[in-house]
Task: inverse folding
């Protein structure tokens, strides 16, 4: 997680999301490939090269690859390998959450082998024991986890804001447990060896906090100053840069944009005529994506600078 924090300090806070559905690729481009999965892999590889200068990390949402079957999972593995090859932090958005041997298997699957990544997303709602196998990898292998805390979807209030009998709400209980785990993992030697310019050094346990509600964002940033955030909701989900910037204070975070980058070609004025004529190329949509990534990074940095 500290590596990602340092990347954000150096390159800006953008996380480029590879939630790459075949429908995000123009039909005239798709038909040039033997299968949709092949087009997705080519798009991903070109996106990684084009967007890396503007991105602190990449996030790969496994669901889009599972939906393409066996070929899709091969594309998922190849995409992760491409990211490892360019040595940029990669988040696997898998939202796993299970117990005992199953949790151990999930941890092995996503922190080693074909599907290895640096950080994974986790769902804590079966209990905090579900986090333990992943925390062991944080301690022993330098991996990281982002645990769902205050998500960006409207339905989050169904569970995350439920009142607890002992006081507070569900997300308060989750947050306090994440703080406890981080405190158990972080030692002074660890901090010394992982030093950054940030005066709020983070541990390997981060939280998913959406940027769709300004008051919640400010409250959570102040409550957890040393926790690094994965921040969804920016762009296509309606979250504003100013809300994201609030969450970038203190220990900071990385702000994900997926569809806004992947589908930038749909709104590009430069590509209007080619889009209407139906003769877009892979290079066209990659160029539009890279431009969107650059603009998103600049938008976030401007908002952060105005705090």
Result:
């Amino acid at each position: 997680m500290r590596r990602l924090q340092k990347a954000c300090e150096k390159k800006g806070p953008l996380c480029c999301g590879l939630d790459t559905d075949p429908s995000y690729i123009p039909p005239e481009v798709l038909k040039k490939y033997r299968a949709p999965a092949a087009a997705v892999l080519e798009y991903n590889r070109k996106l990684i090269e084009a967007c890396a200068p503007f991105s602190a990390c990449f996030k790969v949402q496994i669901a889009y690859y599972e939906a393409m079957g066996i070929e899709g999972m091969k594309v998922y593995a190849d995409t992760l390998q491409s990211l490892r090859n360019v040595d940029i932090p990669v988040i696997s958005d898998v939202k796993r959450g299970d117990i005992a041997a199953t949790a151990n298997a999930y941890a092995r699957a996503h922190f080693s082998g074909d599907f290895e990544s640096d950080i994974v997303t986790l769902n804590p709602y079966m209990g905090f024991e579900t986090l333990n196998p992943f925390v062991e990898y944080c301690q022993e292998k330098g991996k990281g986890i982002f645990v769902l805390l205050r998500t960006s979807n409207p339905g989050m209030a169904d569970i995350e804001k439920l009142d607890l009998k002992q006081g507070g709400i569900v997300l308060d209980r989750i947050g306090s447990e994440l703080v406890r785990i981080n405190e158990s993992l972080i030692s002074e030697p660890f901090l010394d060896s992982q030093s950054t310019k940030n005066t709020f050094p983070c541990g390997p346990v981060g939280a998913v906090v959406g940027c769709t509600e300004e008051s919640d964002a400010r409250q959570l940033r102040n409550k957890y100053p040393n926790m690094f955030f994965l921040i969804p909701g920016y762009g296509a989900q309606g979250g504003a840069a100013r809300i994201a910037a609030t969450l970038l204070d203190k220990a900071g975070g990385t702000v994900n944009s997926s569809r806004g980058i992947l589908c930038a070609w749909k709104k590009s004025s430069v590509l209007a005529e080619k889009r209407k004529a139906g003769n877009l190329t892979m290079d066209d949509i990659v160029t539009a994506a890279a431009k969107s990534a650059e603009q998103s990074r600049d938008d976030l940095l401007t908002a952060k600078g105005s705090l």
The mean pLDDT is 94. Residues 2-305 form a domain with the TIM Barrel fold (CATH 3.20.20.70). The first helix runs from residue 2 to 11.
